[in-house]
Automatic annotation (TrEMBL):
Function, as annotated: This is one of the proteins that bind and probably mediate the attachment of the 5S RNA into the large ribosomal subunit, where it forms part of the central protuberance.
Family of this protein: Belongs to the universal ribosomal protein uL18 family.
UniProt entry keywords in alphabetical sequence: Ribonucleoprotein, Ribosomal protein, RNA-binding, rRNA-binding
Organism encoding this protein: Pontibaca methylaminivorans
Protein name per UniProt: Large ribosomal subunit protein uL18
Subunit relationships: Part of the 50S ribosomal subunit; part of the 5S rRNA/L5/L18/L25 subcomplex. Contacts the 5S and 23S rRNAs.
Any Gene Ontology CC annotation: cytosolic large ribosomal subunit
């Protein structure tokens, strides 16, 4: 029986997250969510269960509200790197969820790495 696209996405997301939990070594998780119009990212401490920092294209302070392009994702990546440094985090592991590592997701991570966040 053919599976729906949503079901395959959810299975891929769980598979990625379970593999990352085995190798995280106590580092915070940089979790990304991409929708048709926006992209958001959170820096999550799974041990304590708290979000340390977040950034999104929905924030007016970033000046990219409503833009769903690679440049907007790069600004979000730079913002999360800056906020992670201010939260005292310099190293994290990347949780791409069920999203493929290209386009906006790749631009976000590359900008976070350029901002000084070790991923």
């Amino acid at each position: 029986m053919a599976q729906s696209t949503r079901t395959m996405f959810l299975k891929r997301r769980l598979r990625v997250r379970n593999k990352l939990r085995k190798v995280n070594a106590g580092r915070p998780r940089l979790s990304v969510h991409r929708s048709g119009k926006n992209i958001s990212v959170q820096l999550i401490d799974d041990v304590k269960g708290v979000t340390l920092a977040s950034a999104s294209t929905l924030e007016k302070a970033l000046g990219v509200v409503g833009k769903n392009n690679v440049e907007a994702a790069a600004k979000v990546g730079s913002a999360i790197a800056e906020r992670a440094r201010s939260a005292g985090v310099d190293e994290a592991y990347f949780d791409r969820g069920g999203f493929l590592f290209h386009g906006r997701v790749k631009a976000l991570v590359d900008a976070a790495r350029d901002g000084g966040l070790k991923i």
